[in-house]
Write a structure and sequence with these properties.
single chain; mainly beta; two-stranded antiparallel ribbon; 91 residues
């Protein structure tokens, strides 16, 4: 569950060939990021329902509001007709 002790975080790994990846050190946010692009920002939702945004989608995610309780788990994000739809499970 990541480097070090404690709770899980989301980090980024990049690749130029899709086979060999290099992990980056920056903690982007809490575990299980789901990222979408909308207008000039990349938005992410993590478990349990925290929202983030970033200009480049690769770093410097700003923490925003929390939309769900501690029971919320994995999510999926879909933008359709300029509306954000959030699908999720509860424990």
């Amino acid at each position: 569950h990541g480097r070090g002790e404690g709770r899980q975080f989301t980090r980024l790994a990049v690749s130029t060939d899709g086979i060999n990846f290099e992990g980056r050190e920056e903690d982007l946010g809490r575990a299980y990021f789901r990222v979408i692009k909308h207008d000039d920002y990349y938005y992410a939702m993590s478990m349990p329902g925290f929202l983030y945004r970033s200009r480049d989608g690769l770093s410097n995610f700003e923490s925003g509001p929390r939309f769900f309780t501690d029971d919320m788990r994995h999510s999926a994000l879909l933008i359709r007709d300029k509306q954000l739809h959030v699908f999720f499970t509860n424990r």
